[in-house]
């Protein structure tokens, strides 16, 4: 404590620190639109957000932190460890049950990646330019700033954060003179455990690349001969195994579910609707999720590998190894989901940041080490390179949630009524058309009861309806049958949805 206070009171604002502070502050401002703007705009999505949101709501209500539930029964859908659910439940207890509490963990995880990209570059290479460019690339990566990753309450943004953190911690150790092996191994153990608790065996999928990097590094003998390596590995295996043992003991059959949904998918087609060819992710990078940056990556790797600075060479080499091993692991299985590539975007961003760093160094050579000219030129290059991608990302975020699916109308309208502060009890009169529809509606039922004490019921037949009931109706056939037998008074309309009061029977 005394040391911390001394550092605080002895802190001096140098020019270098002021520039660093300005750059980081500007980066925080630029992070807002891609990560947080319009985050609560869309209602809870069907897949897979609504299932995680359901788990979080029920954890908040029943305080069952180990066995996740859906409709008060053991969840057979979400077989992942509960760290993300814990963070969502924690926020629900503070800010209520809403879209913010579901999605903020993903947004904060992405923001931590932005911070890590910036300070990894500043600390290791004393380059604000590298860190700033890498962060901007990440913030404008379509494949990460999207549904099921950063913009929704799924698991993949949090997983990506832990994977990136343990990789850059290890890479930093390999390329510097740091000899504190004990500290490294237990830091790695903690980060790997957190990655596991975020998305099960997905948390281990950068480890093959890490192992290859260790084996080809000059520190391999000291790494392999240090007993704390084996202690930390044993600690990691023990804690991860204990979770599975505890979960199986509390809800028998869990391990069978995990085996079927997580292990078998590596060599069996357990989800035929997600079947894709081996090069599918690369094709997506080129045509959908990483334009135009994917075309820069080969140049960044080549330039980095031939760059005179040995630390740059090794960083690029180790990043490339981690990318290729992870890409192989997600490409080999027949079943591939769009969000499996999410962890790669932070690595890509760092490679592009290194490219900008190399360009800056060459500009200094060309301008005969006139630093101010080189800085002005690289700043101009950065502005010209990122202004269009950033504006494109802004337009994407603005549209996010405005493209409605007719199958989700009940949950969308329930959110609209909540946002517009309707303080009335009502009943949703509908028949679910999709498997996830009841979960979406139930999210808003429980949110309204928890936050405001508002009761929302669900009817699916006319015989349940009584005079003076307030109904939400979105399905045309339900409206037609309702109007055939009852006279109603409309309170509010949105698209095909109406909030109305049943006045009297038509006597038919």
Task: Outline the structure in words.
This protein is α/β, with parallel strands linked by helices and 508 residues long. The chain folds into two domains: 2-399, no CATH class; 406-505. It is 62% helix and 7% strand. It has 20 helices and seven strands. The protein has helices at 2-9, 15-35, 49-62, 83-95, 99-125, 128-139, 156-175, 181-199, 207-216, 220-225, 227-250, 254-263, 280-289, 297-306, 310-331, 344-366, 371-399, 409-419, 437-452, 476-485; strands spanning 69-70, 73-74, 426-429, 456-459, 470-473, 486-494, 497-505. It has a five-stranded mixed beta sheet, sandwiched between helices. It has a two-stranded antiparallel sheet with strand order 1-2.
Briefly, what is this?
The chain has 20 helices and seven strands. It has about 500 residues and is an alpha/beta fold.
List keywords for this structure.
single chain, 2 domains, 5-stranded mixed beta sheet, 20 helices, alpha/beta, 62% helix
Content-based structural category: alpha/beta
Estimate nothing, just give the exact number of structural domains.
Answer: 2
- DSSP helix fraction: 55-70%
Mean pLDDT: 93
Count of strand segments: 7
Q: If you compute it from the alpha carbons, what radius of gyration comes out, rounded to the nearest whole angstrom? A: 26 Å
Order of strands, main sheet, comes to 4-3-5-7-6
Low-confidence stretches: none
């Amino acid at each position: 404590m005394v040391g911390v206070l001394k550092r605080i009171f002895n802190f001096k604002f140098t020019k270098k620190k002021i520039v660093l502070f300005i750059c980081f502050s500007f980066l925080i401002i630029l992070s807002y639109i891609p990560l947080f703007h319009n985050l609560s705009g869309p209602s809870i999505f069907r897949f897979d957000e609504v299932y995680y949101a359901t788990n979080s709501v029920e954890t908040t209500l029943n305080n069952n932190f180990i066995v996740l539930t859906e409709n008060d029964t053991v969840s057979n859908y979400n077989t992942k460890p509960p760290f993300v659910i814990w963070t969502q439940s924690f926020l629900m207890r503070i800010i209520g049950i809403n879209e913010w509490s579901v999605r903020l963990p993903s947004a904060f995880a992405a923001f931590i990646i932005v911070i890590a990209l910036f300070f990894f570059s500043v600390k290791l290479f004393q380059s604000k330019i590298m860190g700033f460019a890498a962060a901007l690339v990440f913030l404008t990566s379509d494949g990460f700033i999207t549904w099921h990753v950063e913009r929704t309450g799924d698991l993949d943004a949090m997983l990506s954060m832990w994977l990136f953190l343990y990789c850059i911690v290890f890479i930093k150790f390999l390329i510097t003179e740091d000899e504190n092996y004990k500290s490294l191994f237990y830091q790695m153990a903690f980060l790997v455990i957190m990655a596991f608790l975020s998305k099960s065996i997905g948390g281990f999928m950068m480890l093959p690349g890490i192992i290859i990097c260790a084996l080809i590094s000059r520190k391999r003998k000291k790494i392999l001969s240090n007993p704390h390596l084996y202690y930390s590995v044993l600690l990691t295996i023990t804690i991860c195994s204990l979770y599975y043992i505890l979960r199986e003991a509390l809800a028998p059959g869990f391990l069978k579910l995990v085996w079927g949904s997580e292990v078998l998918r590596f060599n069996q087609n357990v989800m035929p609707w997600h079947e894709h060819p081996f090069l599918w992710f690369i094709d997506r990078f080129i045509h959908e999720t990483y334009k135009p940056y994917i075309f820069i990556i080969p140049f960044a790797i080549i330039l980095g590998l031939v760059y005179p600075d040995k630390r740059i060479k090794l960083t690029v080499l180790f990043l490339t190894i981690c990318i290729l091993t992870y890409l192989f692991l997600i490409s080999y299985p027949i079943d591939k989901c769009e969000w499996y590539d999410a962890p790669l975007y932070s690595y890509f961003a760092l490679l592009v940041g290194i490219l900008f760093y190399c360009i800056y160094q060459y500009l200094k050579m060309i301008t005969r080490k006139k630093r101010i000219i080189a800085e002005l030129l690289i700043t101009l290059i950065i502005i010209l390179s990122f202004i269009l991608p950033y504006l494109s990302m802004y337009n994407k975020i603005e549209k996010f949630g405005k493209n409605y699916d007719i199958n989700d109308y009940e949950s969308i309208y329930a959110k609209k009524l909540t946002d517009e502060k309707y303080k009335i009890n009502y009943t949703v009169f509908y028949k679910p058309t999709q498997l996830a529809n009841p979960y979406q509606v139930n999210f808003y039922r429980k949110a309204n009861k928890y936050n405001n004490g508002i009761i929302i019921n669900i009817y699916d037949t006319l015989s349940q309806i009584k005079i003076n009931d307030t109904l939400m109706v979105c399905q045309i056939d339900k409206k037609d049958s309702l109007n055939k037998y009852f006279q109603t008074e409309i309170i509010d309309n949105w698209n095909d949805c109406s909030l109305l009061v049943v006045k009297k029977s038509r006597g038919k």
